[in-house]
Here is the input.
Amino acid sequence: AQSVAQPEDQVNVAEGNPLTVKCTYSVSGNPYLFWYVQYPNRGLQFLLKYITGDNLVKGSYGFEAEFNKSQTSFHLKKPSALVSDSALYFCAVKAWGNTGKLIFGQGTTLQVKP
Amino acid sequence: GAVVSQHPSRVICKSGTSVKIECRSLDFQATTMFWYRQFPKQSLMLMATSNEGSKATYEQGVEKDKFLINHASLTLSTLTVTSAHPEDSSFYICSATPDGYEQYFGPGTRLTVT
Here is the structure.
């Protein structure tokens, strides 16, 4: 069965420090992976995706993610966190088949403190 | 970028009444649209997958007669919560995909049933 796990409910970092939000996945076949961010009472905003190609994917707002096939991970990273990055982050994998469904992780709250 | 709108953003209704939520893809044609429900600080729960001109596919445990979905065109899907009860109060989010890979999310609708 396909699944996505975000092992941390919350990540706390100080402004200016690097941040990592972890994601591991379990899929059959090649994974199509996504990161989304959600601000309070808002929909999800797309950050980045991995379909194929370079393992390091660069996305919106200075975020990047590294696809690691051997560790089945797709951790989200940013070199220098901003207070405005504080939000709820979701990792997702495209479900097998052509339905277009996404399977979401449980979400990680990122708290960046000044 | 691709934009998805939802209307209304907030709605309060009385128990027993029905509420319709619209989801529109503004600058692309959506082969498929999805409806999610989200509880506070939790992940998105997929309710149903909607394809233009055909019946929606509901996830296990979602009542078809209660959550009516109509995908009238390639840019419009509607979710009607029939005979709403307080337990239906939630944040409802739609998404749309032009290609079956990347999903673009609406801003969400906060439904409160009194």
Notes: Residues 6 and 106 of chain A are 6 Å apart (CA to CA).
